[in-house]
Amino acid sequence: MKIQLTLVAALGLALAPLQAADIYVSKTTGSNKGDGTKDSPHKFLWKVIKDLKPGDRVHVAEGVYNGQKKSGVMPVLPVGDIHIVGGYKADFSERNPFQYLSIITGDADRQADTKEVFYYAPSNPKDSGEILLDGFCIDRGPGLYYSGHGEGGTDKQEGYQDTTCWGYQAMNKKKSGSDPAIEIASKANVTVRNMILINNPWWGIMVKGGGDGQVLIENNLILSYRGRGIEAITGGGWGAPKYIIRNNTVAFGSTDEGRALSLDPQEGKGEVIVENNVLAFGAQTGYMTKFGADALSLNNNLFYGFTKGDAGSGGSGVCNAEDFEDELEHDNEGNVHELPKFVAKLPAGYIDRWSQWKNMTSDFFTSDEVMAARKAVGLGAYELPFYAGKTYASYADLPGSRVNYDMWRFPHNFKKGQELMNWQESVLPVLGADGERGVQPFSE
């Protein structure tokens, strides 16, 4: 009898669900043989992610983290109900993701593919549990270095990889598709916050679903994206989620739409609250809706620098912020169209490259407003690198044959093997620059 009871007990233990764990990861103090505790953390984030179990909570210390084989892509999130939180001091004694940077990036030779850095989209997301991503800096610049002939007009390689798939000044990056840096499809609650996403070869953040729960996209900084900065859409038949998109700064969206926010608020399918964001410098619109906007509340946001207007619907521009109350049916108040203060905190190269893009001005955004942005960072007349020694007093005087800066790495084009930019000096000063709007300094 004793033997039978022992076997039954052993079998029960074997069939019991694995207990959720707090897992610690540190590139600087961890070990490949670490047990995942504070005192003995794991070293490689990608190895931890691929083996996650429901309920696991991952804590990531400061440092630079690559994916497998030094790519900039993490494994597909294998389960729901997980938290992955970065920004801890090396000894895990305190947390501030804008001070103790947990940086995800890749080696230039390994990041030609531009898959999602964080991806979760199960075939049946009904009971996936909450997904939380919080406190990472994702720099995809090493996958976006120029190729072809190097700097315009020089006809020299100068250390660039010669892929030449697009010929002159081609870029080693995704040419089609929509792979965001972060893509999550889930019926459960979703939170994406305190992220810095820079040099995105396509979209920044995409969240689909939410069931009857909440999707919170909060306090993220997205600089340089192609297509859409943030897309928040309701999953078909997935309930009526509540989307809250607040205190994000989204800027420098180039070709292939170049919209800061892409939304699809639908009556009876939840609500979308967009508040206290700074949305600036894009090739299309500040926000775009797909099916109307009856379920949208748009309050206290700052817009500037969108060639087709601050607001758009169905792919077309509608109006700028000063006309929102007159022209838009959905709830809106306190929105402004004005130059954001954060531009003065960035390297001038951001504005310099953006302001020389071929298709920058329109009825919604004038050359005077382009020049106002240049003046804010101490720039005067235009001087293009491929017309050495020539300056142009106004946007209208620029030659039409100039290189289209819809393909760039901010604030400078990226050479193979080049070091990552200094985040603390060139990016983090924008925190809190626009008062209560936009990305804010970290607080628990």
Described by the principal axes of the CA atoms, the overall outline is globular
Q: In the CATH hierarchy, what is the class?
A: Mainly Beta
Q: Sheet with the most strands?
A: 15 strands, mixed
The tally of strands reads: 25
Structure write-up:
This protein has 444 residues and is mostly beta strands. The chain has a single domain (18-341), classed as Pectate Lyase C-like (3 Solenoid). The chain has helices at 2-15, 45-50, 324-327, 348-355, 367-376, 423-426; strands spanning 22-25, 57-61, 63-65, 82-88, 102-104, 118-120, 131-134, 137-139, 182-186, 190-193, 196-198, 205-209, 214-218, 221-233, 242-246, 249-263, 271-275, 278-282, 287-289, 296-299, 302-306, 311-313, 316-319, 331-333, 336-337. The longest helix has 14 residues, at 2-15. The protein is globular. Residues 7-17 and 147-175 have low confidence and may be disordered.
